[in-house]
Write a structure and sequence with these properties.
It contains three helices and three strands, in the order βαβαβα. It has about 100 residues and is an alpha/beta fold. It has a three-stranded parallel beta sheet.
Length: about 100
C-alpha cells in the first residue's frame, strides 16, 4: 500500500517551488499541489476548506475566528522569514493598548 496523499494549495513562490517540482516532499505522504493565487486559495480555505494544507492570510484568519470556528489547525509558519508589510498603522487614540489573539478549540 502506498503513502496517503495530502492536498495542498499555495502560490508558486521561490520557497514553494521545491514542493511543486518534487525536490522536497513530506516524509510518509504524497503531496498533490494546487497552484492557486493567494486570493483564490484564501477564498476556498474560508469557504469549502477542500485542502488538507493551505496558506491563509492573517487578516482573514483573525476576522473568521472572531465569528466562527476555522476548519484548519493554525501553525504559524513563515517560510520567507521576513515581514512583508512596509508599515502598520495604529490609530492615535489607541496607543498604549495591546492586541492579542487566543484561539480556543
Amino acid at each position: 500500500m502506498g503513502n496517503p496523499t495530502l492536498t495542498a494549495a499555495f502560490w508558486r513562490y521561490d520557497r514553494t517551488q521545491p514542493l511543486i517540482d518534487g525536490r522536497v516532499s513530506p516524509d510518509g505522504f504524497g503531496l498533490a499541489c494546487n497552484i492557486l493565487r493567494p486570493e483564490d486559495a484564501f477564498a476556498l480555505a474560508f469557504g469549502d476548506a477542500p485542502f488538507d494544507i493551505t496558506e491563509i492570510s492573517l487578516s482573514n484568519t483573525l476576522s473568521t475566528v472572531s465569528q466562527r470556528p476555522l476548519p484548519y489547525l493554525l501553525i504559524p509558519v513563515f517560510p520567507s522569514r521576513t515581514f512583508r508589510h512596509g508599515s502598520i498603522f495604529i490609530r492615535t487614540d489607541r496607543l498604549g493598548r495591546r492586541v492579542s489573539l487566543s484561539i480556543v478549540r
